[in-house]
Specification:
CATH topology of the largest domain: Arc Repressor Mutant, subunit A
Number of helices: 9
Distance between the termini: 43 Å
CATH class of the largest domain: Mainly Alpha
Number of strands: 0
Low-confidence stretches: 1-5, 82-90
Shape: elongated
Number of domains: 2
Length: 190
């Protein structure tokens, strides 16, 4: 193959790699439960992206990358005959810490963040993944559903379960509209 006339330059690929590698590897690690397999899956995806002839036809790059990494990670597991349907049970997905303070982050004290992390750690695995993709990766319902290979309704249900369980853990009454509005704005910033 002649790579001198690629639709994606080496510089662009390097920028994309720098931007997405850590996030995609963390996502793949949840599926594979292996650092080596996760990195291998992500590297395979970037190699295929480099070899792809119609790079410009990718509609949403972040969604494309997450779906491709999910598929590559599952394939890695199949290759090593370790694929199990309960692949995401007990997944450890920590909340990301944000370096640059935003208006809503300034309201959250470090104890609140620690309590929130503790509450998220107690969530069922699927709830954790849905919550993480929507809150930290700021993906929409449809994109999250596509990445996980589930319906939008499943994403909605998992998110509702996550919010309810986090509220219970933090002892926040969601029936109080004032408290629930603040709570939901902290969990799912726009």
């Amino acid at each position: 193959m002649d790579y001198s006339k690629r639709n994606i330059s080496k510089e662009t690929l390097t920028l994309l790699f720098d931007r997405y590698f850590s996030r995609l590897t963390a996502f793949a690690r949840v599926i594979t439960r292996s650092d080596a397999l996760a990195e291998e899956a992500v590297l395979d995806v970037f190699l295929k992206l480099w070899q792809r002839d119609n790079f410009q036809k990718i509609d949403r790059l972040d969604t494309y990358l997450f779906v491709a990494v999910r598929n590559a990670a599952v394939n890695k597991l199949r290759d090593f005959k370790r694929f199990r349907f309960e692949m995401i049970d007990g997944a450890d997905i920590p909340l990301a810490r944000y370096d640059a303070p935003r208006g809503d982050d300034l309201l959250v004290e470090s104890d609140m963040m620690a309590a929130l992390e503790k509450a998220v750690d107690k969530l069922p695995a699927r709830c954790k993944i849905v919550f993480r993709l929507m809150r930290e990766e700021r993906l929409g319902r449809a994109e999250t559903a596509k990445i996980l290979g589930v319906s939008v309704k499943t994403v909605d249900n998992q998110l509702a379960i996550a919010i309810r369980k986090i509220a219970e853990e933090l002892q926040i009454d969601l029936a109080d509209p004032r408290k629930s509005k603040i709570f939901l704005s902290l969990l799912l910033p726009l």
